[in-house]
Here is the input.
Amino acid sequence: MTISAPVPVATPAPGRHPALAATDPELAALVGAEERLQAETLRLIPSENYVSAAVLEASGTVLQNKYSEGYPGRRYYEGQQVIDQVERLAGDRARALFGADHANVQPYSGSPANLAVYLAFAQPGDTVMGMALPMGGHLTHGWGVSATGSWFRGVQYGVRRDDGLIDYDQVRDLALKERPKVLFCGGTALPRTIDFAAFARIAEEAGAVLVADIAHIAGLVAGGAHPSPVPYADVVSTTTHKTLRGPRGAMLMCREEHARAIDKAVFPGLQGGPHNQTTAAIAVALHEAAAPDFRAYAHTVVANARALADGLLARGFELVSGGTDNHLVLVDLTSRDVPGKTAAKALDRAGIVVNYNTVPFDPRKPFDPSGIRIGTPSLTSRGLLPEHMDAVAGWIDRSVTAARTGDEPALAAVRAEVAELMAAYPAPGLPV
Ligand SMILES: *Cc1c(COP(=O)(O)O)cnc(C)c1O
Here is the structure.
């Protein structure tokens, strides 16, 4: 029997979305239910966050109504008096925050942003290189099931079996042998600091364009909690909705010499009109990320992840690479005798939201791998501190044990404890 997590009661959020509730009570109730779910659960998916009320407001504005194909000052539609200013503001703030020569804030999301990079620097059939998906890379870094792995010849590097770290000599050997046009670094399940300088040396020697995909860690970079790739990479690609705590969107930053190629690839190469309400919300998020308290946020995200890793290690969990330097922890559950998917579903029933994930050299299949991936960006946005992480590790431990023994009451008990702590730390942007 499969028991699923309780479905939250779909009640309209009173007074919160009045127009929506009047026009479409059914959808308003679903939004209310999602708000409740996000408020009551402990969200540990490392690619998620809670945006501020200001970012939420900016992304729900009449800027949504405007078509603006082109770039500020060179549009294909009239009436851009305001939109041009919005997009310039977002671009200026991105350049200032990351110290980049050029920023394009139009990509619809991280995957289209990366596709634009291919369009700018490679031809179909060319060799491209990135980290293998099951090792912690992203689909769009040339993995087979992605268009980037079928339109291009993707060659893939990984991590070492013994310590779970990138072997830069191995990356160099592969790059010199394969001579990729584009070399991606960065990923989705890398718990350790990326050595951008080492990648830059390899890319230079191999004659490749170096792309640093900082989708996961952009907020840490902005807040000074992870080294910046900007001095080293030809192009920096990032989503805006993960640690950066903005709306769902993306940005491409690059050296001046590549600005034209990147802009042409995004529009008209790949996209039509930019999503101006998203551009506005990105501008707000960048403004928030430039404030001093965002530096504290970024450092606390890392301190929380380290404390959580320590709490898990103390309870006998095995962590890929033995710990973390950033916002995420990759847990190998093999020694606990629980498959990743079983654990993730049990944790969901306990009010702890994670995702199952492959671990490097995983003997299990990707749809039911050996690991779970957990991260601290969301709980840190709620104000949780390292002193809370031992309790979180304890809940994960009890839930994983309950997953193995089928102990549903134990999961319900954890769920109640989680809800109590979450009620004490309301999330940004959500009703209290
Ligand atoms: C999340 C992510 C992406 C893709 O972003 P989407 O917005 O989901 O398309 C690309 N690269 C990396 C490294 C990511 O973590």
Residues 47, 109-111, 114, 138, 140, 186-188, 213, 215-216, 239 surround pyridoxal-5'-phosphate (CB under 6 Å). The longest strand covers residues 127-131. The chain has two domains: 58-289, 300-424.
